[in-house]
Amino acid sequence: MSRGFGWTEFLFVLGGLRWTILLSLAAMGGGSVLGLLVAILRTAPIRSLRWVARAFIEVLQGTPVLMQLFLTYYGLAVVLDLRIDPWPAVVLAMTLNAAAFLGEIWRGSIEAIPRTQWEAAQSLALRYPQQLMLVILPQALRISVPATVGFLVQLIKSTAIASLIGFVELTRAGQLMTSVTFEPMTIYPVVAMLYFIICWPLSLASAMLERKMGRTSRGT
Amino acid sequence: MHYVFQFGVVYDNLPLLLHGALLTIRLSALAMLFGAVVGVFGAAVSTSGPRWARAIVRAYVEVIRNTPFLVQLFIIYFSLPAIGLRFRADQAALLGMTINLGAYATEIIRGGIEAIPRGQIEAGRALGLRRWHIFRFIVLVPALRVVYPALVSQFILLMLGSSVISSISAEDLTAVTNTLQSTTFRSFEFYFAATAIYFVMALGFRLVLDGLGWLLFQRRTAA
Amino acid sequence: MKKLMIAALALLFCIGAVQAQTLDRILKDKKIRVAVEVDSPPFGVLDSAGEPDGLEIAAVRQLAKDLGVTLEMVQVTAPARIPAVLAGRADVAIASLSMTLDRAKTVAFANPHGALTIVIAAPAGTKIASAADLSGKRIGLTRGTLEEATVPKIAPKDCEIVFFDDISVTIQALVSGQVDGAGMSGFAAKAIADKNPAKQLESKFTVTTAFYAAVVRPGDWDLLHWINTWVFLHKRDGFLAGIYEKYTGLKLPDLPTM
Hints:
heterotrimer; C: nine-stranded mixed sheet; globular
């Protein structure tokens, strides 16, 4: 009585998809807040702040996400004697990772804003934080939208590694169903297709936004 | 905090860890090479190939770039045997990494090729250069020179992303670390050490690849 | 500023400090967290509704009921069973953890409440009658399990052993033919064979037998004592024998106490 890949199995896989989306949203949300801070520090006029942000970015971009996840989930709890539930641990690891990548993207955007904008803001008697908040950041974030959306796609894909610590998101749901139905040939392509359905529209949007922005900003 | 760090265990097993690192380096280097080749080929097809071939390459790139690497590995290792294609774990890992990198490389190099001004190509034709020479010297090499940094970044990402191949039992630094920490229960120490080794490898690859880029593209051999 | 940060951290991560009087805390909070497997037939699986079920799951539900607290099941993969308890993510692990001296160095075992065998499972066509026949074959094992600790010791030098991170992946490897055979509990082999007669999987030979028990952090004497009492009483009233037979079809062997 082998359980074939039927409707109940597909529903279970969809349940995993729900967690993938939740995890992506949580990490993107947390990562955006922290990433903005990182980008601001990275472009600050004070050298030590720039250095701290840079170290953060380099370490998190220069090490595997999987290791960051393992360290958070397996290691940190033992060391700090804390009881960290699986969900917060995964969200924490992915948030920190997202913060590093978004921080780097937004740093590039901030640095792409011409000096004249800074000078104009200064001539309006605005202090540095105000210059940043009122003049520079709105423009920087606007031009960073294609890259940010592009990163969201990477984030959604990278949530798949949460399966390796047993967190039941989409990939692990597929794994569990495969070990019960013995049909890896049908299940994994279905899982891939579900990721594709979520990610492809975002990728297309990112590309389209990039083209549109290229057209408008080239006018100057 | 009453956790006692025992890095001595890590130190004792350093040879094993370094062996794992070597496996990662070798696999990544091979995948970078093959992936780059796939990328050049794919970029060439998608810029100047027939319509049907361009569609195939486009589909390949979009599918790979919008699905997780881990799932791609699972399909290669667990799903393909059902249609008779059974790869060993290390073969599946290399294949998966090559296919994955190839898609990104195709897109990156294509972007570089499309940025070559048409005037250059027309100048080449006016000089009577053959199509292959035009592609190689006027289009490809300048394109590679421009996108090389982006390509290097993608290579490094691939090397770091290779850490998931342990889930299909392929041997690499992560696999070795997993085994060591599951038998000694020193999870923090071993994962910390492995993370540090990956960081060093990423730096190393960046240095080597940047140097390679300098050799290939920056050195002016003629006037 | 510092106080704000601490409050924010606490809010974000639901931090709870690990306390020595675990049983007291469980009874006070009216909640027990148990690390379980859901990818290891017949000990822990997900039924068609996606709910955990199985031999160990049944024991876990009874334990929580007897304690009079709500149950929170922390689903883990095989290598994460013990780390989950050590890290405080669970108060106890009841996930077919066989008693070994190596594990006893880092965790505390209660008295055993079941027994299992470790076998090499392979398709019917593959000839493996004893450890010697493993020569030249590829055998899959799951990390952090008894088979990982025992099979490599008896395998011949030219037997290639591959490690997977959890049981469901090892099973997939066996079913998709990526390994010639796999080490697993005898029950798991039987469960898989029953569910999938087409593949004709069978247990080839027994590697070792073991008793499995609940696992707690070293120092949680109060909880350990309670679990031992629980095992003792349920041995006598037949509960343990009942669920064992229900999920394995076999009679529960004599369970000694330490």
